[in-house]
Design a protein that fits this description.
The chain has 15 helices and eleven strands. With 463 residues, it is an alpha+beta fold. The strands form three sheets. Strands 6, 7, 8, 9 and 10 form a five-stranded antiparallel beta sheet that branches. The chain has a four-stranded antiparallel beta sheet with strand order 1-2-4-3.
């Protein structure tokens, strides 16, 4: 039986020495050699009749080395299991220049391994207080969303001339000089805009124009700041201040007008196919509920983002940095041998991100284990089903035309990558839901604009 000793060589960093004697491995070596003699297939000899000396000469050194290493590994694994050591990755073998196996002179052998131990730490969120910004769905939001849906499902017509601020214009933007001539090497690009995006003065100039008519504009005069930024971004220009001063010839290539859908049962079914809605009141209530659900999710995302940094920043833990950097040096992608070993500079560059990811994994694993958080097969299947339905715009299952769905989902349940991705998403949601219940949330109602601004500032602080 192997003799195993252990000594500390650094912070959460131990050396494990495994020593085996001839009696531990030599009987197995001789038995394996006999098996080879019976099974060896060498030209000139009948199977099972190959001289033992020849078999030993041909296969002995390899078999001997394999038996020694196998016994060393068994001694190491038995020790780790018995001691229940919670270690990172796998033990790293330390260099052993003295290991020179010789089947003709069997001896005692000793190997040293280095292990990194996982740290002990506590998670206590009971004293954490965080702002919880809540946006209330308003009548204005509901009206805007209904109008958007009426336009989305509306019928596009092509009036002869521009006669409405709601007209959709297909335009060609061609950059021009101050005298109206085409700018050499200037920008030329197609875009689509609503008439109402222009300033009131330019809307007046547009009314009455038809297909193929042109109009020269300077962006700073033709659009207010918000709409101008959209146009500049669509045209692919980077310098906003410079772009605003540019002039363009606009050529109208098409005039369109969307006829809004009436608020009737046919429209309700098209807009929200998964819901059985018959009246305008029911439709408005459903839209309001969807809007509220969206903003509630944004609020949850915001506080969970906050919690992510609380968990990472406030939970103190030590890590065996020296061991982990050595492990990083050995963790090359085996499918890309051409990359070669990592340099010390590469390891130093990768370590901060690796450290963060590792600490987050330790924290979430502890939360999952201690709180018995689990994802059931039914939850996995339902989540995958909802993903599939989302690809088809949330179809109405009541239509009875999706018999294929269960079979399709069953097929995806056999896809390990799909299942693993869905599992990680669901269990992470459970971790954050648990964490959210542990803290004190100070709810504050804000407008959508205030929420967006605060969220942007919050994101900026952590990048």
């Amino acid at each position: 039986m192997a003799t195993v000793t252990r000594e500390n060589i650094g912070l959460l960093n131990d050396k494990i020495s495994v020593k085996i004697s001839k009696e531990d491995y030599f009987p197995a070596f001789e038995k394996t050699l006999k098996t080879y003699s019976k099974q060896a297939n060498i030209p000139g000899f009948r199977k099972g009749m190959v001289p033992a000396g020849m078999v030993k000469k041909m296969y002995g050194p390899g078999i001997f080395t394999e038996e020694v290493i196998r016994n060393i590994e068994k001694g190491l694994n038995d020790y780790l299991a018995a001691e229940k050591l919670d270690i990172f990755a796998q033990p790293l073998p330390l260099p052993n220049a003295e290991f020179k196996p010789n089947m003709d002179s069997p001896a005692d052998y000793s190997f040293d391994f280095e292990v990194g131990l996982k740290p002990a730490f506590e998670i206590n969120l009971s004293k954490i207080s965080a702002p919880y910004y809540k946006v209330q769905a308003t009548a204005e939001m509901v009206n805007e969303e209904i109008e958007r849906l009426q336009n989305r499902f509306g019928k596009m017509t092509e009036p002869e001339a521009i006669n409405n601020d709601e007209n959709v214009l297909n335009l060609t933007f061609e950059e021009i000089n101050a005298d109206g001539t085409a700018a050499e090497g200037g920008l030329k690009k197609d875009n689509s805009l609503l008439v109402k995006y222009f300033t009131p003065a330019y809307r007046t100039k547009l009314h009455g124009l038809k297909k193929d008519d042109t109009l020269n504009v300077q962006l700073s005069e033709a659009f207010e700041e918000k709409e101008r930024s959209w146009v500049i971004e669509d045209l692919g220009m980077k310098d906003v201040a410079d772009a605003a001063q540019k002039s363009f010839k606009l050529t109208i290539t098409k005039v369109g007008l969307i006829e809004k859908r009436e608020l009737n049962e046919e429209f309700f079914k098209e807009a929200l196919p998964a819901k059985d809605i018959k009246t305008e009141a029911e439709f408005r209530a459903a839209i309001e509920a969807d809007i509220q659900a969206y903003w509630d999710k944004q609020s949850s995302n915001q506080i969970q983002h906050h919690l992510y940094h609380v968990l990472l920043d406030d939970i103190k833990m030590d890590l065996p940095e020296s061991f982990l950097k050595k492990w990083l040096a050995t963790s090359n992608d085996p499918s890309k041998p051409e990359q070669g070993p990592k340099s010390p500079a590469q390891i130093e560059a990768e370590y901060p991100t690796f450290n963060t990811q590792l600490r987050w994994t330790l924290i979430t694993d502890k939360i999952i284990t201690e709180n018995k958080l689990e994802v059931t097969p039914d939850e996995l299947k339902e989540a995958i089903k909802q993903q599939v339905l989302s690809y088809f715009g949330g179809m109405n299952l009541a239509d009875g035309n999706v018999e294929w769905l269960d079979q399709y989902v069953d097929g995806l349940m056999k896809d390990e990558q799909q299942v693993d991705s869905t599992y990680r998403k669901l269990v992470t949601e459970k971790v954050f839901n648990w964490a959210e219940q542990q803290i004190t949330k100070n709810e504050k109602v804000v407008t959508a604009e205030e929420f967006i601004k605060m969220n942007e500032e919050h994101q900026h602080q952590h990048h």
